[in-house]
What we know:
Helices cover 49% and strands 0% of the residues. By secondary structure, it is mainly alpha-helical. α1 runs antiparallel to α2 (67-88).
Amino acid sequence: MPLPFMTAARDGASVTTAAEPLPHEEAPLGHRAHRPGSWQVGGAALLLLLAAYLLFSALIIVLAGSLPVGGVCVIVAAVVIAAALRLVRPGTRGQRADSPA
Length: 101
């Protein structure tokens, strides 16, 4: 029993008889080569927890009156957040070389 709603040919034509290629042959930008593992997700969660503590401590430090030290805490928290995002985004591709900017 053919299931046309499960194929790329929605008009009822068979996929095996179609001679033309499908319009989505290339993987889209940002296609993930593999999903992040549980260690990567757990590590990123711990890093984000550390960043939350850093931002909360920055708030307390700024309210106590030391603005430069609070700024350092915010910068360190931003670096930790960037590391956490990089940890859960492995294998993503950027812009193709043949596509315009």
